[in-house]
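Worked problem 6 (solution included).
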Amino acid sequence: MQHGVGSPLPPPPQPGHGPAAGWSQAAHHPGAHPGPGPAGPPPPAPGFAGPLGPSGPAPHAPAPHAPAPAPHQPAPHPQAPHSPPPQGQHPHSGVPQHAPPPSRDTTGHVQLPPGGPVAMPSPPPAAGTADATATTLAVLLIGPAGAGKTSVAKYWADQRRVPTAHISLDDVREWVRSGFADPQSGWNDHSEAQYRLARRTCGFAARNFLANGISCILDDAVFPDRPVVGLGGWKRHVGPGLLPVVLLPGLEIVLERNAERSGNRRLTDEEVARIHGRMAGWYGSGLPIIDNSQMDVPTTARVLDDVLARSIASPPQW
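Solution. The predicted structure is:
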């Protein structure tokens, strides 16, 4: 007999031979010829209607809409081959998918606490001394251009016994490529706005690092004669637990180190001298000051640890 598209029907599956029962073969073997069928016709599946019989309908007679199943036609699988798989099951493997979609509040599978204002580190017991190398801290390293802030901050962060990040204000400020407002070309509203944006971005980063157990050290040339923008801004962005330390070598040392710089981070001698003079206003402010004129980077980092241990025990008022 011919089915709807004119090709013969496939033979019924035999035990141990051919495809598994329930798989529709007519769509994949249109040219196959039927072989000898079983002794008797199988009972029709519930709700199934097949062709009339082996001899087919009379010539020129229209095919009925609900013919009886042929003796050699296997009962189809209850689920059509091309019907969509059950919900939660892979369309090809048939394996249920049990993993729920990730929450929108997670990164991968790691829950990240939200960043908040950084609180003051807990002081050590009265009989002990704070170990600044193993305490989670937020440090602001202040100093003029050429003071060695970036070198000391990187080394200090590398040598700590707890996870520590270095956040450089100049690096974040230079994220702006097109439209970068270089202060060397003249201080204006655009350069002021980009400095403030960089400070706020650094503050957000520090709060997130601290909330997830990672210390951080920031470096910036904060002026004592601009407290609202300088220390006041950092306290608003990070929190009252930020520990400021001033790095202030002599003018000759600063000029030598600035001469070794390149690009837009190298300032004129006049600008370096002007900034250094303004930084001298930190004397008498109550903030700890390190004169690293005769110190290399590792020595300065060790002195910084001593200063921070005292700041934890007796936080500076700023």
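Discussion: The longest helix spans residues 189-211.
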